[in-house]
Amino acid sequence: MHTIFKFIVALAISSFFQHSALAGAAADAFSRKDYNEAYRQWSKNPDTAEAKLGIGRILLEGLGGPKDSEKGLSKIKEAASAGYSPAVIYLANYYEKAGAYSRAISYLRRLQAKSKSLSRQEKIVTLLGTLTKKPHSTNQNFCKEVKTLSELGGSADKKITRECALNGLPSSITRTQAEAELKGTLATNPSYNSLKRLAPGALNPESASFDPASVLSALLAVDPTLSKGESKELTITGAVSKSICVKLPTANATQKINQLSYCALAALMGDQQLAIISSRAFASGNMGRKSTELALTFAKLAGSPPELNGLQLQMLTETPNKWSEHLEFLSSTAQTLSASDLNAAIRFQSNAASKPVKGYTRVEYAKLLRVSVGNDNIDLEELERVLNARNALPMPTAFAALGGEPEDLASNYELLKKRFSGEKGIRYKLAKTRTSNDLRSFLPLVAELTEVNQTLKQSERIALLEEALSLIERNGITLDAKNAITLGDLFLSVGYDKSTELAPKGYRTAAAVRQQLEQSQGRGTSVNTEATAKLNELIQKITNYLVSPQAVQADEKSNEGEVFSNTRPKPSPKNQAGNALEELDELEEQKIICDRTKLPDICRGVGKTLVKQLQNQRYGLQASDLLDDALSYLRKATEAGDLVAHRYIVDAYEAKQLLSEADRKQSDQSLETLLARGDIGGELRRHLKTINTNAVTQLLTNLGSILTGDRRFSEACSKVRSISQSNQLDDVYDRGLAAAALDSVTCRPRTNQ
What we know:
Elements: H1 2-31, H2 35-43, H3 49-61, H4 69-81, H5 85-97, H6 101-114, H7 118-131, H8 140-151, H9 158-166, H10 175-188, H11 192-202, H12 212-222, H13 229-237, H14 242-245, H15 253-267, H16 272-284, H17 292-301, H18 308-317, H19 323-333, H20 339-354, H21 362-372, H22 380-389, H23 409-418, H24 423-436, H25 439-452, H26 458-475, H27 481-494, H28 503-521, H29 529-546, H30 549-556, H31 576-597, H32 600-616, H33 623-639, H34 645-654, H35 661-676, H36 680-691, H37 695-708, H38 712-725, H39 732-742, H40 748-752
Helix pairs in contact: 1-2, 2-3, 3-4, 4-5, 5-6, 6-7, 7-8, 9-10, 10-11, 11-12, 11-13, 12-15, 15-16, 16-17, 18-19, 18-20, 19-20, 19-21, 20-21, 20-22, 21-23, 24-25, 25-26, 25-27, 26-27, 27-28, 27-29, 28-29, 31-32, 32-33, 32-34, 33-34, 34-35, 34-36, 35-36, 36-38, 36-39, 38-39
């Protein structure tokens, strides 16, 4: 037995050295790139892990001969399964280079299980970060590997470590430590991201980290006016509510500040009462600090109630004998007041100046002018009161040079008057003339307006012209030369296009204007030579317009045999121009009914009519106005619950030559609404969008279909044909859309195949 044992030992030792010799010879040959010799040597003992790795690499990489990737990879995996670390390392690198990061990570983790390596852990975190969707801190596996990296002394991302802890996932720090770190950054570098992370704890009264005062302070640093949407979102994230606000303890100063701070955050949810409380707290200093600015901010959140400056001014207004104190306070706070408070204060002061009250001098009036000049929040009506108040003031004294007459009174007065020479001022004066039916003031103001705003829309010029004619008819007056010339110039500036549906209205209006010019011309001696020449010129231009071929053609079509006269012709049922005008008038009536009643069928009908006009005007100057007008009435119909109006919203956008992303989104939303409700008109329009795709896109798609089998256009045509033949379409207009699509270039070739 002893002899046999010695023999076995000797055999084992001999085998070991023989194997070592073979392995060494193979490795030496491999390093010399003599891959055939390496393969021969490893093949002598192929079952060893070293041989499997070596032979596997030669086959996988095609070293010294053809590749056999499948067999080579299988050999290396056998070596790795046997626990041979070089094989595991090789596979990890192989799969990383191949982009198979999950497999690479699997082999790296197998190595880490044997022996932890910092560099290997860094590799795992890097590869896992590539695979993990952002934010990484929400992935448990990623957080676990980052924790391991930190434990090995690696430079793990501190932000990710903190976020992992805050998310309740594995981390090298506790949640409490993470919150403390975040709170520290909040004080030095506040941001919405940090606030949102802290909100769940800092705004939870049951949490040990409850600290609404810090949250409010940081929020005000990020958004001093509390006007950003993210500020309100923060209160939603922290589940802030008024019900919690009123129940918070107030036993000590800290608790009181925390309650007021919490209530201030709750005010962002739109609670007016809490906003008023917060405004008062900042005004009094009860919030922990006194701030007039923040008091005004919360007053605005409350809807600008009569608090702080507004409240003080109102109180002074209610005490007339304190007009001087009121003026001083107004002078220092005018720029911070709401428009309503400011106008009320200006009215109080202009009334005091108009009487004038005892002691009200030109010095006080000069102060009022200083407040009024350059403040666009003051209504023109109140500015007019201020200007008129000057007439009631006592005359300057002999001591004006010694300070009785402020130097800037006259200059500021003139600056204030200029507010009425601009477009807003002219429109204000126009509004007043409408109230008084003052035609002689109306027309000169119209002339001023068109001069100030030379790009006045055609629609507004028409409205002003019609209003002037209505005033003339209502008052039964004959215009003087100046106003008649203004009327004629206004008509010519409208620019009625003889080729559009406005032509009939233009011819009628021209006849009415010419009549007024001729009546003015007949006033005789009161008209000077220059004015007479101008009137003659205008009359001739308008006459040329009336006897143009287009006007004659419109008249001939009437079968009445009469030319346009000096008065407005009365359209007969056979008069096509008259019918066109009646249609326009009917549309305007329908608009008024829609505006007043919001009846969905009426609003939808108006929108549908405008969409039809838009389809004919898509390249015209009116297209943009028509689109806005059509969408306005269609949206009124949808707001009233009308589903069909969504069809015409889609059509309105499709009629536009170029769609913006916003337009496309709105159109798609209406289409989605229709499809969700199973509307047949919506189904039709879904396929029409494909059929009406521009020709270039169609060509490219059809060329691509040779390779891809894409037959979207033929399929869309087929769907429209099926819908049309099913007789499901409930609208003549929709049936026309379907017929036009089937007759289009897109669909005809496919039907003929």
